[in-house]
Specification:
The complex is a heterodimer of chains A (348) and B (302). Chain A is mainly α. Chain A folds into two domains: 10-89; 95-328, no CATH class. Chain A has helices spanning 10-35, 42-65, 69-87, 93-111, 113-136, 140-145, 158-166, 172-195, 202-224, 228-261, 268-303, 307-327, 330-342. Mean pLDDT of chain A is 84; it is low at 1-6. Chain B is mainly alpha-helical and 302 residues long. Chain B has two domains: 17-128 and 177-189, no CATH class; 199-291, no CATH class. A two-stranded antiparallel ribbon of chain B has the order 1-2. A two-stranded antiparallel ribbon of chain B has the order 3-4. In chain B, a hairpin with a 5-residue loop joins strand 1 (17-21) and strand 2. The longest helix of chain B is centred in the first third of the chain and has 29 residues, at 35-63. The model of chain B has no long low-confidence stretch (mean pLDDT 81). Classes of the chains: A mainly alpha (348), B mainly alpha (302). The interface between A and B is large, with 80 and 77 residues.
Chain lengths: 348, 302
């Protein structure tokens, strides 16, 4: 008959020895949760990795010596929280943003260039089809652009149509409201075009094609009245940015669909995860572009009625986007490729 | 409880636990958040968004003195768009994976592989809400997913289609939203757990205070009945709020059961102390065995 030894149990000793470290880590983590790493003092910051490793090793020991459930649960939780503070912390927001715009964004768009091409082709197909059909028979206009007409239909006189291109109509308050609504509407459709990539991209395809139809029918109406040059002058200053944004959203949808349907050598879930993140990056860019387009549409176009200036602005924006997506961050691209090659991951 | 039921309960609990191996090579465990918590957090966040937009509206109307505020409309539209579409992304990026609603319910978003939560991932998982939440919602409110005048069956099909995305978490074992699937993220429970005092240590202090009175003692054989599972159930009981009648009744019932099972003979004057002593002895015994590599999971194991 042996009775339980009176000396303290191993697990109790263990806890007594190490508890102070855990408490300190808990305190540091709580502060980091509240104010981020910047809320920590230099001393706390220096001690954090040590505290984290010590507690992690405590967890490992606790699992093998202690049956005190409250203790192991506490340690699991503490280590989990600390893990994300130690390994999950990122650069300051300012650096992140700079990094995002100067490299990540244009680079991601460049990698999606084939998806973008598909989006362009689908939209063009819609536009050309609608242009041909509507030029032949104006009744098609109602079928293609019925919702978006806003009073500009084949029934309007040429003079009315021309006036529409050079005068926004209504007061400026109405206009900005209209531009804001248009922006949030377009942006929502853009986000949807991306999300629908999850259904193998077919709805995205339809959305783009439909968008092309509206555009083609619209152009056909004005061309038929000899207002071809004027309508593009009206459309392109903001249209370059807006159309590109819509195409980018479509490309993002296709990227997602690509990840889902053709994972290649990767497991499907990894492929989806990688392409999903890239696609989301592109969509955020597109939303910003739509906002810029809304500003041009709501303010600039109402003020400037000179065709030459309108075309100049359109050309400038087009040049800017070509430069931005084509060339910004290329050096960093090369650098990253080099790094990856060194890491032996191979180049995609 | 029979061995099968016990095992089932344990696998059910384990099915919700995901492990991440740290760079130091030690696995840490995370429990996936339940559907209820996630829905609750979502509703809270929606409430905050609505309140924010309403507050903005109120401020703007007050500021302009209820005069013609037509130039405010575009501002409101823009802000509403930003809030409704980027609220989640903003807070998950700023707040280490937790929006205010998630924080209140003790859940957070993590990268499924334990890497850092990338901005791209946060944006991806939240932009998809357009498909998961807003499309079904618009369908319910306006039914404008298919054209006006569409036949009933088309409406029905469209409805079913929109809701597939919303109900997606019910169809996979990780309870993944489409957003989580696309972004490679998981939502896990991470409430703040406080360190409760060690029952054995506490008992030792109490014993010291009562110096002189011996505690209850148990033989090796009497400690051979129960395993880790039973020990931790007992721990759970002893950590409950003391003093309530329910607690006292449970203590009495459990004492009787244990006394009967292990064949403890002798008077038990203080049931709670008996249980605390038994807990300490049993834990010491099981921990001792564990040091020799014998981990006894429950009373059915050898």
């Amino acid at each position: 008959m042996t009775s339980v030894p009176q000396r303290a149990m191993r697990s109790v000793e263990f806890r007594r020895e190490r508890e102070a470290t855990w408490r300190e880590l808990e305190h540091v983590i709580a502060e980091a949760d509240r104010g981020g790493l910047r809320g920590l003092s230099a001393e706390q910051l220096a001690r954090l990795p040590h505290l984290y490793r010590a507690t992690l090793s405590s967890l490992s020991v606790a699992r093998s010596v202690s049956l005190d459930r409250a203790l192991t649960e506490y340690l699991e939780n503490l280590v989990g929280r600390a893990y994300f503070v130690v390994y999950g912390t990122r650069q300051a927001m300012r650096h992140q943003l700079a990094d995002f715009f100067a490299w990540k964004l244009p680079s991601t768009v460049r990698r999606a260039r084939w998806h973008l091409l598909v989006a362009v082709v689908v939209t063009l197909a819609g536009a050309i089809a609608a242009f041909q059909l509507t030029s032949g028979d104006m009744d098609y206009y109602y079928a293609f652009a019925g919702d978006m007409a806003q009073g500009r239909t084949p029934a309007s006189s040429t003079a009315e149509l021309r006036a529409g291109l050079y005068d926004g109509g209504g007061g400026s308050a109405f206009l900005t409201t209209f531009a804001a609504e248009l922006f949030s509407h377009n942006a929502r459709i853009g986000i949807l075009a991306f999300a629908l990539g999850f259904v193998a991209g077919l709805p995205t395809l339809l959305l783009l094609f439909y968008n092309g139809l509206v555009l083609g029918a619209f152009a056909a109406l004005y061309h038929a009245r000899g207002l071809g040059v004027d309508v593009w002058g009206w459309l392109l200053p903001h249209g370059v940015t807006e159309l590109l944004a819509v195409l980018l959203c479509g490309a993002a949808g296709f990227l997602l669909a690509h990840g889902l349907v053709f994972p290649g050598a990767q497991p499907r879930i990894d492929s989806l995860r990688e392409r999903g993140r890239e696609a989301a990056t592109i969509v955020v860019c597109a939303v910003l572009m739509l906002f810029a387009a809304g500003l041009i549409e709501g303010i600039f176009r109402q003020v400037v009625t000179s065709i030459a200036v309108r075309y100049a602005v359109a050309t400038l924006t087009a040049a800017w986007w070509i430069y931005y997506f084509g060339f910004v961050g290329r050096r960093r691209d090369a650098l990253e490729r080099e790094l990856r090659r060194e890491a032996g991951e191979g180049v995609p | 409880m029979n061995p099968d039921a016990l095992a089932r309960r344990r696998t059910a609990a384990a099915a919700r636990v995901r492990e991440i191996v740290t760079p130091e090579g030690i696995p840490i465990r995370f429990e996936l958040a339940g559907a209820g918590d996630r829905a609750g957090a979502f509703l809270l966040d929606m409430l905050f968004q609505i309140l924010a937009i309403a507050a903005l509206l109120l401020c703007l109307t007050m500021a302009t003195g209820l005069r013609d505020g037509s130039f405010l409309t575009p501002i409101v539209i823009l802000v509403a768009f930003l809030v409704l579409n980027f609220y989640f992304a903003f807070f998950e990026i700023r707040g280490q994976g937790a929006t205010p609603g998630k924080r209140r319910l003790g859940i957070r978003v993590i990268d499924a592989r334990g890497g850092q939560l990338e901005n791209g991932a946060v944006l991806a998982r939240n932009l998809v809400r357009e498909l998961e939440v807003w499309m079904p919602l618009r369908f319910l409110l306006g039914g404008k997913v298919v054209g006006a005048g569409a036949p009933g069956w088309a409406l029905l099909l469209a409805g079913a289609w929109t809701f597939v995305f919303l109900l997606m978490p019910l169809f996979n074992k990780d309870r993944l939203r489409i957003g989580d699937l696309i972004a490679g993220t998981r939502v896990v429970m991470q409430p703040k757990v406080l360190l409760a005092p060690d029952l054995v240590d506490e008992r030792a202090e109490q014993a010291a205070a009562r110096a002189g009175q011996g505690g209850y003692e148990f033989t090796e054989q009497q400690l051979g009945f129960y395993g880790i599972y039973e020990l931790q159930v007992l721990e759970g009981l002893l950590r409950q709020n003391a003093g309530t009648t329910g607690y006292l009744q449970a203590i009495a019932a459990v004492t009787e059961k244990i006394q009967h099972k292990i064949g403890y003979e002798g008077p038990i004057a203080d049931s709670e102390r008996f249980l605390r002593d038994f807990y300490a002895a049993q834990r010491a015994h099981l921990e001792q065995r564990m040091l020799f590599g014998q981990r006894r999971e429950d009373k059915h194991a050898r």
